[in-house]
Design goal:
Order of helices and strands of chain B: HHEEHHHHHHHHHHHHHHHHHHH
Radius of gyration of chain B: 21 Å
Helix content of chain B: over 70%
Number of domains of chain A: 1
Strand content of chain A: under 5%
Shape of chain A: elongated
Oligomer: heterodimer
Number of domains of chain B: 1
Radius of gyration of chain A: 20 Å
Distance between the termini of chain A: 54 Å
Largest sheet of chain B: 2 strands, antiparallel
Number of strands of chain A: 0
Largest interface: A-B, 38 and 33 residues
Number of helices of chain A: 3
Number of strands of chain B: 2
Helix content of chain A: 55-70%
Chain lengths: 113, 495
């Protein structure tokens, strides 16, 4: 199962890298989304995939799942959600202001303004 | 166990929330922000004293015992940095009253300013590696807003690049934490250190070296070391002076702090990674100096000087002996103060002249002697002319380098002082001497009021240099904890 997850994460990172290397801003944002998905799955896999009961002591279960990676993923998802929302608004605003969503046309220094 | 160490995080947090509701009432905002800023300085100062007398302070949030819950830890290193941050925040705040403009003030500038401090102070005082990530994100989110606030074309354009770089580095941070968790099975920094110590009896396992380099990439992107500083000159060019001062003085130093913390606490078994850090630090000095000398734009000159300073500090850390680490801690605090002062000073120059191109500026000393001489002293302090504050730190770093027989690094650090001096004297000679000129919009610049803030910083910097003898016990205590991780581990895990 871990091997399968490793492939899934690899494919996510691969697609994210491909998308982030493109010129359209929207594709780049989708790329960052995929990148953070890959990272979140990686936390889950790194904690060890195992079946078990909820980690509450006192029951008679043989094994418990590790709650920590889940807590980490939850936090990381919220953060990447917020950053992606901000990024989308920023992209829209700069499209209005700069009149382009092509990263190639956004290079340059202050001297052009 | 003390609640004191969480105050520098909580005070700006609540202030930020209150300021959101006061957004149209500028005077009220200023008063609240000033009071809270002074309160933070007092809390941070008390923390420093507390750590000085009672040793490392830790706080287990929600009373979950140390390795299980989130722990806040204040050793001397982080306490001093929190104090410096609070001081700089106060100074940048009073500078922005006169310079930031009503539009920004109405659109939550002060609120976001305070949230930035939450992130920075939190990153300095947390003792949990994942919590460090969370505070990084708080800090970055605020920095995105501060960078883009105002919405000019250059700000929007540079914000996109800055955001993209940091989103990628955040993803790498999460990945690095995940790998580290899979190896050691804990997130508490003291506990991680203890466990790495257990598994590294025959040298550090290879996977940990990989994680060390991953951390170096993540924090190096924030801290702008070679070759990861590529985003910085562009992004830092965009925002107005007080924001630039905060970014230049605080954000990169958070990266430097994190490298120092993780390398001295986790990865001290493997000197190869320290060798890599040392090489990158030396290259940062070299490339930073080249940039600082090459540009004719005053903003860019100071921005490239950030890279030089980061290189010098990390060179000191990478040597890892008593003299060099003491010097690095000393130099880190010096650099935060003096960089903020320089950015605020060139902010005044830009507000007088309306340009940052050195070729269009000259003769400022005729009508602005106060500004000119403050800049002159700040420039000398930056280069490390005794008795100003840069000297002691650099001396100790060079001494440590020579003791460790790392002659190339020590030599380059020494040479960089001369070239840094040249790069800022270039501003002084061309911009302040020469023929007096008239500039458009010059009369509007409130130079006298603006000059208060950087003058405070230059005075602090001078006192820091002259009184280095009495400050040294604090710095030594910080360096001792960095050099001996057991002090840190025992203080956090024993309670």
């Amino acid at each position: 199962m871990e091997i399968l997850m490793a492939f899934v994460i690899g494919i996510l990172f691969m697609s994210a890298t491909y998308l982030m290397l493109s010129k359209s801003l929207l594709r780049i944002i989708v790329g960052t989304g995929l990148l953070s998905h890959g990272a979140h799955l990686l936390i889950l896999t790194m904690g060890g995939l195992k079946r078990g009961a909820a980690p509450i002591l006192g029951g008679n279960e043989e094994s418990y799942t590790d709650p920590l990676p889940q807590a980490l993923i939850l936090t990381a998802i919220v953060i990447s959600f917020g950053v992606t929302a901000f990024f989308l608004v920023l992209a829209y605003r700069s499209y209005q202001e700069l009149g382009t969503d092509n990263i190639e046309e956004m290079r340059g220094t202050e001297k052009d303004d | 166990m003390t609640n004191l160490i969480i105050l520098p995080i909580l005070i700006p947090l609540f202030t930020g929330v209150i300021l959101i509701f006061l957004n149209k009432r500028i005077t009220a905002q200023r008063v609240v922000a000033t009071i809270s800023s002074i309160g933070t300085i007092i809390a941070a100062g008390l923390t420093v004293q507390k750590v000085r007398t009672d040793g490392i302070q830790s706080l287990n949030v929600s009373s979950w015992d140390a390795p299980f819950g989130i722990t806040l830890v204040s050793d001397m290193f982080s306490a001093l940095l929190v104090l410096t941050t609070s001081l700089l925040a106060f100074v940048c705040l009073i500078y922005s009253f006169k310079s930031i403009g009503e539009e920004r003030e109405k659109y939550y500038f002060y609120a976001v300013f305070n949230f930035l401090l939450v992130g920075v102070n939190g990153a300095f005082s947390t003792g949990d590696i994942f919590n460090l990530f969370v505070f990084f994100e708080v800090m970055l989110m605020s920095s995105y807003v501060l960078l883009v606030l105002g919405g000019t074309k250059i700000q929007l354009r540079e914000s996109i690049k800055y955001l993209l770089v940091n989103v990628i580095s955040s993803a790498l941070f999460v990945i690095a934490v995940a790998y580290l968790y899979s190896v050691v099975g804990t997130l508490n920094m003291a506990h991680i250190s203890a466990r790495i110590n257990e598994i590294s009896v025959n040298g550090m396992p290879g996977i940990l070296s990989v994680i060390a380099v991953l951390f170096l990439i993540v924090f190096g992107l924030k801290g702008a070391i070679f070759p990861l500083y590529f985003w910085m000159p562009g992004s830092y060019y965009a925002p107005p002076a007080p924001v630039l001062a905060l970014f230049g003085a605080l954000l990169t130093k958070v990266g430097v702090y994190s490298i120092t913390r993780t390398y001295t606490l986790f990865f001290y078994h493997d000197m190869d990674t320290f060798g890599l850090l040392s090489i990158l630090a030396i290259l940062s000095i070299v490339f930073g100096v080249i940039g600082a000398i090459a540009y004719w734009d005053i903003k860019n000159i100071i921005i490239y000087n950030i890279i030089v300073a980061v290189g010098v500090i990390l060179f000191g850390i990478s040597i890892l002996n008593t003299a060099s680490v003491t010097g690095a801690v000393y130099y880190l605090i010096h650099d935060m103060i003096i960089k903020a002062a320089l950015f605020l000073l060139i902010g005044i120059v830009i507000s007088i002249t309306g340009t940052s191109n050195l070729r269009n500026i000259s003769g400022l000393i005729t009508r602005y002697p106060g500004l000119s001489w403050t800049f002159f002293i700040a420039a000398l302090a930056l280069a490390g002319i005794p008795p100003l504050s840069g000297f002691v730190g650099k001396l100790l770093i060079v001494q440590g380098g020579v003791e460790a027989e790392s002659f190339i690094g020590a030599f380059i650090t020494l040479m960089s002082s001369l070239l840094v001096l040249f790069s800022v004297m270039k501003i002084f000679i061309n911009g302040f001497w020469g023929k007096d000129r008239r500039y458009r919009g010059e009369a509007k610049a409130p130079v006298k009021q603006l000059l208060i803030a950087p003058a405070i910083l230059v005075v602090i910097s001078a006192l820091y240099g002259i009184g280095s003898e009495s400050i040294l016990p604090y710095i030594t205590q910080a360096a001792d904890t960095l050099l001996d991780p057991n002090i840190y581990i025992n203080a956090v895990l024993k309670e």
